[in-house]
Write a structure and sequence with these properties.
Blueprint (H helix, E strand, L loop, with lengths): L12 E7 L3 E8 L5 E8 L2 H12 L5 E6 L6 H9 L4 E4 L14 H14 L11 H31 L3 H4 L7 H9 L9 H38 L1 H4 L6 H11 L8 H7 L5 E2 L9 E2 L6 H17 L1 H12 L4 H21 L6
Parallel strand pairs: 1-4, 4-5
Antiparallel strand pairs: 1-2, 2-3, 6-7
Protein name: Transposase
GO molecular function: DNA binding; transposase activity
GO biological process, one term: DNA transposition
Length: 353
Amino acid sequence: MTSLTDLREVVDVVIGVDTHVHTHSAAAVDARTGGMLDEITVETTADGYAQLVEFADEHAALRAWAVEGTGGHGASLTRVLERGGEAVIELDRPERAKRRHGAKSDPLDAIRAAREALARPRLGTPRRGGDRQALSVLLAARRSAVNAATDAQRQLFSLVIAAPEDIRERFRGRTLPGMVTIAAGLRVRACRDVETRTTVTALRSLARRARALAEEATAHENAIRAIVRSWRPDLLAQLGVGPIVAATVLCAWSHPGRIHSEAAFAMLAGVAPIPAGSGQVSNRHRLNRYGDRQLNRALHTIVLSRIRYDQTTRAYVARRTGEGKSTRDIKRCLKRYIARDLYRLLEQQPIEA
């Protein structure tokens, strides 16, 4: 589906689907006129998905599905449709500007989804499951564990600052990891006053929680590394690309052909400059703050690593600095180059060892 530029050339009907947790609303839209033919709302169950397919069969054999949230609320439906050989178009970021000027309902959103698919110059297919989905799940779990561990450490540090002096003295001059180690080994003594006993209990609890979460994050990272090594080990061979960065890139890219060009991949990563000319002002661009921010962050990590360790990158930075470029602009340029190189690498089949 990614090679198509006009759905009207290949289908008679587009089924737009507005997805929610408990129900999905679908609308059949004529591909040539954009007129709504029929609509239906079903529950998010196996029977509900079967009803949607029967609904589509009543209108056209040549059809495509425009599903919002193929990686979220519409994931189960998307899997059912793909197993049945249906053509599914990804609409993870629907355009909802018209909502501000009119009514809103689930059937109307389903109609808008279908018409948006008809209007798009490029059509995207859903991200695949399998290894990609496994990486996505592990990344989410690891991110949650890392964030929670960081919160626990910050809370521990704050409690140490306000702790009674005999407790605070034990932590003086220690780094945060050292504080966690000391706090995890604290003992609650019955002879102490209630404030001290409570503070010690809280510090020990936070330290042990931070340790457990750090161990959980490490376990997730090891699982991520194993999947990346078995799927695309060539990514890990790139300078500055570790298992977390590689997994983030693979989750955004998904599979060959889903993203039609390296320019589109750069736009997805938010590293393609956006034209900002107007009137007599031309050749002007602004920073792209859209796209996949996790992917953008992964490219930023690669840039920082290469600036520090890669002599070629350091020479580029020195040259561009001499030309008057700011550090921020230089990093933006490097992100764009790295996005291009990663896209070309990903679109190639990895060489078997």
